[in-house]
Amino acid sequence: MNIGIVGCGNIAARYATTIGAAPGLDLVAATDVLPGRAEELAASFGGVAHETLEELLADGDVELVVNLTAPQVHADVTRAALEAGRHVYSEKPLALRHDEARALVELAAARGLLLGGAPSTLLGEAQQTAWKLVREGAIGTVRIAYAEANWGRLETWHPSPQSLYGVGAFVDVGVYPLTIVTAMFGPARRVSAYGTVVMPERTLGSGETFRLEAPDFVVAAIELERGVVVRLTATFYVMPSKQRGLELHGDDGRLYMAAWDAANSRLELATGGGDYEPVELVREPYDGIDWSRALVDLAEAARDGRAPRANGEHAAHVVEILDAIRTSAADGRPVEVHSGFTPPPPLEWGT
């Protein structure tokens, strides 16, 4: 499948590197609103640098648009690509509001196109191993999940983090464990949340200061349809440290994943009242995040006539959960979640 990248910022080179290493994927085009960035990406990884999105969408070689733009314009770019007849894989979130996300899912279906959405870290070896253990009953019936998405102060390393601060920590990083637990245990049905700004003024490396538009600390209790209760914390203040990862608690034991984003995360299992013991993964893991894995799956889904595992329907449901978290944190009341999705199957090697 031939890929065109829209948005050549901080994450684009990571995608381009893994696309180049993946069989069956070719990077053929790129564009960015800032002059020079698409040219730089194309010079390093190949493909044609287009001056505008419209020009890229007119390129007949592009079959799949990978949307790596700022979250605030994800929906607009994805809509334009779908209307131009292209499959789309969007970085998270699919949109900033559930009604926008749902409209994109419906548009893709009406056009007979595939719509995929990040994050796709469920496709990693550690995550597939954890899911396999849960399905096999290694810790019995799972009733509680704890997840920590502590991502620290973005301005200490990111050259332009304002757009990420604008949408907040839950939208940027809380979606990683949220997507994993909903894939494993099904849709959410109710959310209770608290959010606040703990450090309102931030300073870039250049010395420029800016103030936050969204909470940099959020805690949410998310009740899933199948009875699992998820307590998830997301923050842009606390650094990644010992309080990070995903822990599943069942009637017969516990399962701990140290890094929900890394395919080679440490995985530990405790049964009964015993101590945690390391778990061997189902196969040799990728080191970190394989950014192209969901793109390979989407290309195979197009060939096989099925939905991609990291699909737009699931991504849209996650957006409704994010909407509910914002509303609950603002109003102090639980908020119902109404949408659903068909949970993806595990990868063949994850069974």
Written description of the protein model:
Helix content is 32%, strand content 24%. The protein has helices spanning 12-21, 37-45, 53-57, 74-83, 98-111, 125-135, 162-167, 169-185, 293-304, 312-331; strands at residues 2-6, 26-31, 48-50, 64-67, 87-90, 115-117, 142-150, 188-196, 201-203, 209-211, 217-224, 229-235, 245-250, 253-257, 267-271, 277-278, 335-336. Strand 11 (217-224) and strand 12 (229-235) form a beta hairpin. The model has no long low-confidence stretch (mean pLDDT 96).
Task: Please outline what is shown here.
By secondary structure, the chain is an alpha/beta fold. It contains 10 helices and 17 strands.
Q: Main attributes?
A:
351 residues; alpha/beta; 10 helices; 32% helix
The major β-sheet equals: 9 strands, mixed
Shape: globular
Task: Bin the helical content.
Answer: 25-40%
Structure classification: alpha/beta
Radius of gyration: 20 Å
What is the averaged pLDDT score? 96
Number of helices: 10
In whole angstroms, the N-to-C terminal distance is 26 Å
Let me know the number of strands.
17
Strand content range: 15-25%
Strand and helix layout:
Elements: E1 2-6, H1 12-21, E2 26-31, H2 37-45, E3 48-50, H3 53-57, E4 64-67, H4 74-83, E5 87-90, H5 98-111, E6 115-117, H6 125-135, E7 142-150, H7 162-167, H8 169-185, E8 188-196, E9 201-203, E10 209-211, E11 217-224, E12 229-235, E13 245-250, E14 253-257, E15 267-271, E16 277-278, H9 293-304, H10 312-331, E17 335-336
Parallel strand pairs: 1-2, 1-4, 2-3, 4-5, 5-6, 7-12
Antiparallel strand pairs: 7-13, 8-11, 8-17, 9-10, 11-12, 13-14, 14-15, 15-16
Helix pairs in contact: 4-5, 5-10, 8-10
